[in-house]
Structure formats: C-alpha cells, structure tokens
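Exercise 7b. Backbone tokens:
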C-alpha cells in the first residue's frame, strides 16, 4: 500500500480545509493534524470550522434544500446510484484510508466501504417506495391519505470508529428523502470525511446540482453544538458515547428538533450448553477483538452456562493465542491499534480497576512496544472474569476487553444480559429452540438487535440499526428507518358539496 497514491486518488492534500459546500472547500479555524495510529506518522492537516464558516454552510444548505426537495425522489435516487458507482471505483483507496487513518484492519476498512455501497443500492430502491398509507374517511365524499415530505437540513455527527459508513447510512437515505446534509465527522478521522466529500461533490457538480446538498464541517464538540442549537437543523443524527448523546438529545429537544441517537453498547453473548463450540468461539473472538473492540456492537460480555464455563475458559485461552496483532494493513493480522493514546490510557485504567477490585484476569492485556508498535496504540486483547454488576462492567470501554461470567438458568442469563444501562446488540448461541425463542420474545433480550448463533457485531444494512435505553433509541439504515428523515402529513380532501364535520358534530349556519 502506498499512502501517497491513495491520498492522490482521493484528492487529499497535505493541508486541507475542513469546511465544504459541495466542491468548495474553505475554513478559517485552527489546524488539526491527523496522525495514523498505525505508525504514529502525521498524514495531513485540516483546518477547523469557525462560526462564520458554519453560517456560510447553513446558508448554502438551506438554499440547496429549496431546489432538491422539488426534484422527484427517483431522480434523487439516480444521484445516489451514481454515488454508489463512484464508491465502487474508489473502494480500494477509501478502504485503505479508513484502515490507515482509523486503524481497523484493511478487510474491515473495505467492508465499511462495502456498507456504503450497499446502503446506496438500498436507497435507490427506496427512492421509489417512500410510501404513505391511505385511510377511509368517516365522512361521505372525503378521501384521506398521508404523505411523507423531506425535513430540511439533516445534521450528522459521527464517530471515529466508522468514519465513512455511518455518514452514508444517513446521507443515502436523507438524500433520497429530499433532505440536504451537513456532516461533522470525528476530528480524529478528518481525512476520511474529506475523501467522502470529494466523491459526492464531484457527482453533484457533474449533475449541475447545488453543492449545499452535501456539506462538511470539522472540529470538536463546539462545532457539534452549532448544529444542535440551530433551529435550521431539523434532525440531528448523532453516533457516539451515551454521555455525548445525552447532551445532544437535551439540546435538540429544547428547540423541538428531532434526533436520531446511536450511542453506547454493552453487548453480550449468551453461551448455552448446546452451542456449537467452533462457531461460538469464532463469533465471540471476532466480536471482542474485531476493530480492536471499538465497534459500538463489539462483544463485551460472555455469559456462559456453568456446565461449560471451564471448557470455554480453556478454549478462549487457546483461541486468543492465535490472534495476530500488528499493522492493520497487513492482511495476516486480526487486530490493529486503538485510535490514540487516550484510548490506550482508558483501556489500561479499566483493566487496573478490575484488578484492584480483585477480579481474575484470564488473558492478560498490556500495551505493546518495540518494532511495528512505535505509535504506542497497540494493545493486547484481555479477558477478565467479572460480575455483571461491577461498575467497570456496567460501562462501555471502547477497547478489546472481554468480561466473562457464568449462569445457571436461561432466565438468569437473560436477566444478566439485560442488566446493563445500554441496549444495543445481543446474541444467544444455542441449538435449543426453547432457549432461542425465549431470548427473542418480549421477555427476552431488551436490545435493538438480538441474534441467534451469530456474533453481536457486523449487522447488515438491510435491518434497522440501533438500540434501546442508553443506546438512545434511534434506528439507522434499513427497514423503515427512512421515516425519521421525513415529516408525515395527513391530508383530508372533500370532493362533495357539503361540509360534514367529523365526530358527527352539527354546525349549521
Ligand atoms: C458502530 O460501531 O458504530 O454492526 C457501527 C456492525 C457494523 C456497524 C457498527 N455494521 O458492527
């Protein structure tokens, strides 16, 4: 992999502006340098968005909306189809940039771009299916139906761990729905945002469409706050920690805006006695160490039946020995670095807390040093025996730390699985129909995602993605998640010669 070639293909310079209205890049704020966690090297720098820059963006986005909303939805779908085609062309380069700037394995970087392509395809079909219902009016010669209209400006705040896909889940749907988008990606992965903007901006330009349909802003929470406080931003879709989501939710609710929150997870796998051991191990280890434990869907807890607990302890110990850690750009490695040194410190602090509390460490963690690990961001995946109610188990640590615990009855396993503040993803490994059906029933998992015999991570875009409780309740990507990007209007039409009132009320003049 030659990073220079990749940056050239994606049109990234050594110094970039972090504000863009379509093809027009500008920014007057501070400079942030994007450093790769892979080798600790500076890749390029980006200027952040000021309040003045933001005003320009909002003016352009608002103006673009007036035009974009009048275009037929299938014609908007055609633009998204072209976007998907361009993503196919640049998949290798964009996937590699994701891997290099964020640190996930190249396979996962490419997989992330594949999710973008998939959501574009989904959105193209959807552009002909933004269905509303029709109802029978209780009044004679009346017709009732509902229709869906675009909202306006959608503000997207996304996290470093999925630096390109989460944006596209939102934009692909929002665009076919007739909205325009302003995106604040993570300030830890600003080059991924610029690369994405370059791709869509070129299409908008070629199609003669206003650049304001796709805008980016760059910076920390202060730039996010410009969007959350701005009544012109009809919907704020935010992905990140529950702490951040609480602030976003409150701020947007204060002005009666809409939010789509996709926040922290604390995802568990229940391992029953009938589970197929080989698939369980693969799913558990990928769930825990994939993306170095930095997915919101990462497996954080294994709830193992007491009769097989020791057996799985041994199997996990052997499986973890096979996990290869190193440059994510080398396909032989399973696990790359954490995003930065703050994440490493957080990982270390959580392990220290567990040890201090007297927990047994089954597979030891630690920070790696020496050749290939110069960035200081590489850590060993760690497995700790824990109790579900311990404070460090109850919170989400974005790192490859897996807690294991045992259960005796399936009801107890479900209670443990549900016994955390978050509610994103969950899974049960079983060949027993009664157990899986209980897990999926109303008395079962309380999560937005509940799987059987697959891991907690790696959800497909066709389903609605998101979770309950402190995960925020939002749903992105598939199923009918598009409805959050639109406003519903109920229409009643009288084609008769009198004005009968509903509920039988008489009012004669
Ligand atoms: C996230 O970590 O924010 O289900 C999203 C998965 C991916 C998306 C994760 N499709 O693991």
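Sequence design result:
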């Amino acid at each position: 992999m030659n990073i220079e070639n990749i940056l050239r293909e994606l049109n990234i310079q050594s110094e970039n502006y972090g504000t863009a209205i379509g093809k027009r890049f500008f920014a007057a704020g501070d400079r942030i340098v994007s450093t790769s966690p892979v080798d600790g090297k500076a890749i390029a720098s980006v200027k952040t968005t000021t309040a003045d820059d933001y005003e320009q963006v909002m003016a352009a986005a608002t103006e673009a909306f007036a035009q974009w909303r009048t275009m037929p939805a299938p014609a908007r779908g055609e633009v998204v189809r072209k976007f998907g085609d361009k993503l196919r062309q640049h998949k290798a380069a964009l996937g590699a940039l994701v891997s290099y700037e964020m640190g996930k394995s190249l396979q996962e970087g490419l997989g992330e771009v594949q999710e973008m392509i998939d959501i574009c395809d989904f959105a193209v079909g959807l552009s002909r299916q933004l269905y509303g219902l029709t109802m029978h009016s209780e009044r004679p010669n009346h017709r009732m139906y509902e229709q869906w209209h675009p909202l306006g400006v959608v503000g997207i705040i996304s996290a470093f761990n999925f630096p390109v896909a989460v944006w596209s889940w939102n934009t692909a749907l929002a665009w076919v729905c007739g909205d325009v988008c302003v995106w604040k990606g993570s300030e830890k992965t600003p080059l991924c945002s610029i690369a994405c903007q370059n791709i869509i901006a070129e299409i908008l330009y070629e199609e003669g469409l206003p650049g304001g349909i796709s805008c980016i802003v760059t910076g920390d929470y202060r730039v996010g706050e410009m969007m959350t406080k701005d009544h012109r931003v009809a919907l704020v879709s935010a992905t990140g920690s529950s702490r951040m989501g609480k602030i976003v939710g409150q701020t947007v609710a204060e002005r009666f805006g809409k939010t789509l929150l996709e926040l922290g997870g604390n995802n568990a796998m229940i391992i029953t006695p009938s589970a197929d051991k080989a698939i369980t191990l693969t799913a558990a280890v990928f769930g825990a160490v994939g993306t170095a434990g930095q997915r919101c869907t990462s497996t954080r807890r294994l709830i193992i039946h007491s009769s097989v607990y020791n057996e799985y302890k041994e199997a996990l110990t052997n499986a973890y020995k096979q996990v290869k850690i190193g440059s994510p750009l080398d396909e032989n490695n399973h696990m790359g670095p954490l995003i930065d040194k703050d994440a490493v410190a957080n990982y270390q602090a959580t392990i220290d807390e567990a040890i201090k509390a007297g927990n047994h460490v089954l597979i030891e963690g630690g920070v790696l040093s020496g050749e290939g690990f110069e960035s200081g961001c590489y850590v060993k995946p760690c497995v700790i025996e824990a109790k579900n109610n311990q404070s460090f188990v109850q919170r989400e640590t974005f790192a490859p730390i897996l807690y294991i615990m045992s259960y005796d009855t399936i009801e107890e396993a479900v209670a443990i699985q549900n016994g955390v503040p978050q509610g994103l993803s969950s899974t049960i490994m079983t060949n027993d129909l009664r157990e899986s059906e209980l897990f999926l029933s109303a008395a079962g998992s309380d999560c937005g995602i509940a799987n059987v015999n697959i891991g907690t991570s790696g959800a497909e875009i066709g389903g609605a993605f998101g979770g309950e409780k402190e995960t925020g309740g939002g749903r992105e990507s598939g199923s009918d998640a598009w409805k959050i990007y639109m406003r519903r209007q109920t229409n009643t039409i009288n084609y008769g010669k009198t004005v009968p009132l509903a509920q039988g009320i008489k009012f004669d003049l």
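Instructor comment: The pocket of 2-aminohexanedioic acid is lined by residues 161-162, 166, 239, 295-297, 457-459 (CB under 6 Å). Residues 106-126 form the longest helix (21 residues).
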